[in-house]
Design goal:
- With 174 residues, this protein is mostly helical.
- The protein has two domains: 2-63, UraD-like; 69-162, UraD-like (Orthogonal Bundle).
- It is 61% helix and 2% strand.
- It contains ten helices and two strands.
- The chain has a two-stranded parallel ribbon.
- The longest helix is centred in the C-terminal third of the chain and has 23 residues, at 144-166.
Length: 174
């Protein structure tokens, strides 16, 4: 962990490296956010990171969405996802899917990608396999624009959980 005070004092390269993985395979997010320092608290840091994503052009946002692995997908089974993604998916029990659950999630993932052109993204913390399946079913009824916005929202939630694990704000003394 790194304290918020220490994070505020880092060079741009160090800041980017300290926050690598907060946004899946997208170091440009912390790199562009560095200029907004100093951050008074975790909420401000998170808000500025999300503002950076919101200010990015649509192709960069699309690349950010595309950088996320498919839930319970082949990459996860082969261990080809980031440690953070593996822990998050495991925490939701996706590594313990029955054959039926695995087949259902993969069929829904395939339908989702076919309809929207990007992977289904949900911040899995607090979800179960059943609630993830339900979310996939519900979100398949939405428009691409709604789901694009929802994917970015979910990425922001994932980033907040990851920040809370990485940045120690208890020692933040200004």
């Amino acid at each position: 962990m790194i304290t918020l005070d220490a994070l505020n004092r880092l060079s741009q390269d160090e800041f980017r490296e300290a926050l690598v993985g907060i946004f899946e395979h997208s170091p440009w997010v912390p790199e562009r956010t560095w200029h907004a320092r100093p951050f008074a608290d975790l909420a401000q840091l998170h808000g500025c990171l999300c503002d950076t994503v919101a200010a990015a052009d649509q192709s960069e946002q699309q690349a950010l969405i595309d950088a996320h692995p498919q839930l319970a997908g082949k990459a996860a089974l082969r261990g080809e996802v980031t440690d953070a993604s593996r822990r998050e998916q495991s925490g939701a029990g996706l590594d313990q899917c029955s054959a039926e659950e695995f087949a259902r999630i993969n069929a829904l993932n395939d339908a989702y990608r076919a309809k929207f052109g990007f992977p289904f993204i949900v911040a899995v913390r607090g979800h179960s396999r059943a609630s993830i399946i339900t979310a996939l079913e519900v979100r398949l009824a939405r428009t691409r624009e709604e789901e694009f916005a929802e994917a970015l929202f979910q990425i922001g939630r994932i980033a907040l959980f990851r920040l809370a694990e990485r940045v120690d704000v208890a020692d933040n003394r200004r």
